[in-house]
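Internal ticket - ligand job 430, EPU:
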Amino acid sequence: MEKLYIKGGKPLQGVIETGGMKNAADPIFFATLLVGDVCVIENVPDAADIRHASEILTELGAVIAYMGDHTYQIDTRYVNRANIPNALAAKLRSSYYLLGAGLGRFGCVETGYPGGCDFGSRPIDQHVKGFRALGATVEEDGVECRIRCNAEEGLKGNSVYLDVPSVGATINIMLAACRANGTTVIDNAAREPHIVDVASFLNSCGANIMGAGTPTIKIVGVENLYGSRYAVVPDMIEAGTYIMAAAATKGEVTVTGVIPRHLESLTAKLLEMGVNIEEGDDSITVHAPAPDAPPMHAVRVKTAFYPGFPTDMHPQIATLLCLAGGESKLTESVWANRFQYVPELQRMGAKLTVSGSDLLITGVPSLTPANVRAVDLRAGAAMVIAALATEGTTIVDDIHHILRGYERIVEKLNAVGADVRLVKLPDPIT
Ligand code: EPU
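stdout (structure tokens):
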């Protein structure tokens, strides 16, 4: 059992380098299975989800070598099946990318239900609709908890309209369509930067994908793909988390290696809150407020699909708004059950009321230390921000959620003056 002991109350100061985006690196790892050749992937974050994706590929017969400096060589030439046990599938949400990649390469795939954060229902009906449109049969076996897809006659390009611009469904259908016979058009596709990144990787391997980053993506099937060398896009959510940690602690921090355009919805909100923030070409600096500066302003925030305000920064900005002056309102429009962190922040003295999909926040001058849980990945990041901004020692439990998605978070924060200790305790006897 691991916990974080965070002695907060000190402004963060210095430079934090952003790593590669977990939610792009994961699908790119599974995409190497579709490619069936030797790929070299750079700028891969050192996060637990990546280790789980590697474990799945290795189980299937891929040969993965870490070459240092966040770079992996992945050889999937000799993989001849895409069939994994339930326990492996449950280790991460992205295991569902095995469906698109396996269908595209072998015409058949079998996996268990994916894991990941618990936001209540996380349907995959749009993935299934896409696979069926391309000619696959999809069987969900609720007893064995298995998903089986088959395309004995091969996949055939088709048009797919997504009812919601789902990140996972867009990537999965793109994967399946790359080597299908004919052209696939995905309408109402997700536009997140990781969609563009996965498409760019696949194109670097010989795929023919156009329009990624727009609501209409066209994929002209090709017979074969080949290996390439590719660097994963910077993680906008990791960068945004550190930017908000800097603002919450009234620190002076430059987050480097970012694409500022990806963070516009956040920087616009922070400016509205009165945070002194400055964009460079590939960096964002949060300047410390003057000692006599008033608290940050209360604002309204609504999460939305990209380029809207990301749901994956919802818990973090909620924490920041707890420290703003006045009443803020945060509306969640992607995940119904995103508010599970609310009791944790309340334990630290936050004044929060959930009303349907709205969170009403009354700012307080400061939070108080407490023992809190990371109920999911981004909620865990929010607890870390709250703890850093609070005088005294806060203990954050269940941090395996945080470690799934934030590489070397303890080292990165301590390098800018935080006092964070990761403590390993023996597991309780059950
Ligand atoms: N949806 C459906 N049917 C589907 C798929 C999705 O109704 O078949 C709905 C969902 O219920 C949700 C919305 O569409 O309301 C968006 O879901 P999406 O499919 O985009 O989410 P996802 O692919 O399961 C990824 C990220 C999440 C992030 C969301 C939204 C990965 C592994 N996960 O999930 O990231 O919150 O997109 O941007 O890429 C995180 O990193 O902390 C995280 C949870």
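Auto-summary: The longest strand covers residues 2-8. The first helix runs from residue 22 to 35.
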